[in-house]
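Page header: ASSEMBLY MODEL / six components / 1374 residues total.
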Amino acid sequence: MRIDEMTAIQFCKAVENDPLVIIPLGATESHGPHLPLGTDTFQPEYIIAEVAKRCKNVLIAPTLPYGQHSTARNVPGTMDISFDTLRAVIWDLLNALMRHGIRRMMIISGHAGTSHMVAVTEACREVAEEYDVDITFFSDFQIADGYKDVPKGDGHAGFIETSRMMHIRPELVGAERPKGSYKSFGFKVIGDASECMPEGVVGDTKNSSAEHGKNINEFIIKEIVRMIG
Amino acid sequence: MRIDEMTAIQFCKAVENDPLVIIPLGATESHGPHLPLGTDTFQPEYIIAEVAKRCKNVLIAPTLPYGQHSTARNVPGTMDISFDTLRAVIWDLLNALMRHGIRRMMIISGHAGTSHMVAVTEACREVAEEYDVDITFFSDFQIADGYKDVPKGDGHAGFIETSRMMHIRPELVGAERPKGSYKSFGFKVIGDASECMPEGVVGDTKNSSAEHGKNINEFIIKEIVRMIG
Amino acid sequence: MRIDEMTAIQFCKAVENDPLVIIPLGATESHGPHLPLGTDTFQPEYIIAEVAKRCKNVLIAPTLPYGQHSTARNVPGTMDISFDTLRAVIWDLLNALMRHGIRRMMIISGHAGTSHMVAVTEACREVAEEYDVDITFFSDFQIADGYKDVPKGDGHAGFIETSRMMHIRPELVGAERPKGSYKSFGFKVIGDASECMPEGVVGDTKNSSAEHGKNINEFIIKEIVRMIG
Amino acid sequence: MRIDEMTAIQFCKAVENDPLVIIPLGATESHGPHLPLGTDTFQPEYIIAEVAKRCKNVLIAPTLPYGQHSTARNVPGTMDISFDTLRAVIWDLLNALMRHGIRRMMIISGHAGTSHMVAVTEACREVAEEYDVDITFFSDFQIADGYKDVPKGDGHAGFIETSRMMHIRPELVGAERPKGSYKSFGFKVIGDASECMPEGVVGDTKNSSAEHGKNINEFIIKEIVRMIG
Amino acid sequence: MRIDEMTAIQFCKAVENDPLVIIPLGATESHGPHLPLGTDTFQPEYIIAEVAKRCKNVLIAPTLPYGQHSTARNVPGTMDISFDTLRAVIWDLLNALMRHGIRRMMIISGHAGTSHMVAVTEACREVAEEYDVDITFFSDFQIADGYKDVPKGDGHAGFIETSRMMHIRPELVGAERPKGSYKSFGFKVIGDASECMPEGVVGDTKNSSAEHGKNINEFIIKEIVRMIG
Amino acid sequence: MRIDEMTAIQFCKAVENDPLVIIPLGATESHGPHLPLGTDTFQPEYIIAEVAKRCKNVLIAPTLPYGQHSTARNVPGTMDISFDTLRAVIWDLLNALMRHGIRRMMIISGHAGTSHMVAVTEACREVAEEYDVDITFFSDFQIADGYKDVPKGDGHAGFIETSRMMHIRPELVGAERPKGSYKSFGFKVIGDASECMPEGVVGDTKNSSAEHGKNINEFIIKEIVRMIG
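Prediction written out in full:
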């Protein structure tokens, strides 16, 4: 099910069934004082592993653990690749899969920054415009946002992410339960966008819990399973 | 020790000690009938984890599991990124680390294809030319090649890699023990370079064993530990 | 006030006062059966002319009447430039202004497509990261959306745009009052995204009126005047 | 007739007749002490509007008011885009038109700098090499130069341009009637090429008049009408 | 005097005198039925060798025998590099020379096509804008054109080039003395621009002679010697 | 036989026989205290001229005398072009030849630096992947290395190159017979790689002789003649 654990022969056999290949798109990004830098990697990896268990005919590509970052770019620990680099990587990977006969591809990103999402979308669109393939792309955070108990204005390293990480990798979650908000500069373009997130956190993590996390993760998994059909 | 498992605060503290950051550079590449597609990822990941245990002050960045491939590009299962993309990713990652104060960086690649190595080297050199930082780059395969018991002409998916994988991830190694050789076209530039590796394997895997693998891995680890000093 | 109507000498004198330069960013895009292709050009041009009348020390740069389009790209009449081209034009123009001593710049776009906005934002950010200048960027549509009487789900060529055009250029507005909606494909990346807008219109234009248009335009103008301070 | 004033439906109908689309290519460039920065925009816009009145089946695309500048680049008021950006914009626009079925395209540039002209030509040529379309490109200044009464050595912001602007937009023409000449540095490549135009004007504007301007404009219009046939 | 014939030590010594480095820019281009494809290489090479004999302190860089071609691109024998490639090569070479302390550089091109000249000029200008160096660039054909006895309308592979080659490399000049003219398509952009030169020759070669060639070459040499001062 | 000495008509005739075109790829690079900067140009030029004499149906393209350099980049006299530029030139030249019907191409490089070789290889491979043509690429140094009397560890400006130049252009070889070695920095990426070659020479030139040079050159020529078949 994990492409990196299959031999070429097993991969060939799997391709005969017209499988869906999911590419986990992680990130290495500062996530408040309490969450690990790999938060946006661990979340989609967990979700995708569960989805693959519940759906037939799904292959998981190796995780790309780097994305494009604007707000957190200058915050210690963020390892970003540029817009153009991210777009190029995704384009290359989709084309590599197509070269081997894959016709159904899904990219699930942990990070959901606007430019990051557009970089990936542009690569996907370029491929979708040229070839008759089925490409789906979203961030699991976009889905999580639809979960019923999410406090208003929750965002980066907030209630959702803290809860989900408490469920997925509790040993990596620090004791702090910070609270912060996105500081708007209106439409001003900020050179060092880290000023927009003075606390490094958007939302109140006070009520985060592993149980909420489990529910949110389950909510996301079910939604994706439904989507795959 | 793993950057993705550290919080931003832990990362900051670690940076104060002028740590060495090691970036594992994996690959997703066809590796004969018997080895998994992630062979070039699992090998450096294992080695680097061991190195980090034995050296102080080492941080491990998230693994980039994709590289540039020429020979195996068209062989099923290979997911390659282009020369330019690989060069760009590495350039971005080195610059991201430097932005946060890292001055010592090491990239260890599982894959050792010539173009792949040059793509990474070019990115490293560009950075080294401009900044006063310490960058080291090699493939663990280059070191493995110095191990005493390696049969002559061993290469891709051969004795070394089979033995090492039998030690690292035995459950992923198939029962086949193929034998093959690199088919030289002299200096002719081959459009589909997979013709150069008709059996998908270079070397004879007959005598591969977990014990050899353990020894080779240990040999590599010691060499890198020595290198770090 | 309009840069293209000033001589070099008048421009120099104006620069001494540290003026705000506004770049109108238009678009040439299919806008339903009833609105002209220049809708996204005429709207910000009108707004900006009014803003410049009410604020001191504002210069208006020539309108760039082309933007990046995804959804309407294949719909007849859309003349698009690519993401990379748009980003390059904006970067060039900001740098040209800075070369002549301008330190305060505002870009107001009629079109508000996500990729289009990111292309411009990326160019602005690159400049803002490197230089100590004041750059503001938004679409007047983003502001219009805050107007009280906007029907829910109004969008491209809908109530807002129809009303505004009935106020600004009534002679260019056709008699049709179409109704349409955005057809979601979820997270699927659509090669020909025009499928997402089967009627070419998002929203119900039935209640559009020049009066509403006047009010919305006034609402936007006041907001921008307030923003400029 | 103006694409930005047509609806998509009107545009579609117009395309059925295999129309000629003219793209006015303006510029925002210092033009001596007396002419407005938009001189190279106003001239082709005027000409093209007249041509379209006298020819059937002509559509006018929105004016691109920015070009590439070498000599005037550093002179206050010049807003330039780079060679590569200009080439990209033109390529994009020609392709956008072709996507909608346009097969006859004409670009008329107000500015006539050598690099500027080559940037546009290279884009046109790339398209003409690949597709069977009819592309024409020139500067109206190239035609004006053939007018009988032009003083020898007339050029940038000189007799021709002053006269033409006195006819087209007299209210924007200042009272000065400067005289200047191109200062040759032979084949030396000058970093700041504004040294080549110390007075900012090439030629003697003393005898400029609206009547001359009218005649020159008429001369150009007739020539283009003849060209279109 | 020829850089390729000097050792690094001789080069270093020469640099101490602040020498002028001349880069011969040749071309490999169809030149009518009678002239060799290297005509645009042999001409500047000859001229530059003579200039270097008569001036002190001149170094000759190795000839780049490839340029950008539009008209002759599709004519058999033309080996062209693209606009961007040519620009990049020239930029690289100027920077390489500057890295070693060269501050005076001259590029003399045999080919004089407009785009070719602009490609080189753009590279030179970029360098001249950034560094305080002395760069001169021209085609020897531009100078030859000033020779008194040149028939009107002489151009590619015509009287000038035939005569010059009869002087420089008579054994390479065929017996034909063709006559041809540039076929103008007005401002139409021609996909295959070879249509513009149906005879492959512009001008009448009837009166070409080695003596004329000798005189023209001498005329050019003297002019360049004068230029260098 | 030399393309630059052929007319277009002679070239056309030659193409009818499906000739092999050899592109000599030289370099302008510091070569110790005793060898000229054009050493890597003179060597392949000599070899190729001899090969062409002994084989039928071979055309020699004009020499490109510039390559990519890492180690010698900062050593006085080296004129390098970048990796990307070199790749682009080669791609352009191969495509130009193919446009005129050439289907068999060979590139012989004097310089054999790893990145340089990969830059050319990548261009060749891109062409070979897309078209059914026959491309061969190597450095004559790679072949020379197989000559029987080469001292161990001989390299840049060492025994082989000194001997070969003593045979080819004895008048350009200085009296020094330096000795030096490659200073390894292991896997460290060195910003100024000239540190790796402190003496500017790799090997001992003491026993170099014109006779050895003649033998080595003959060895190479025969090998290439054999290769062409």
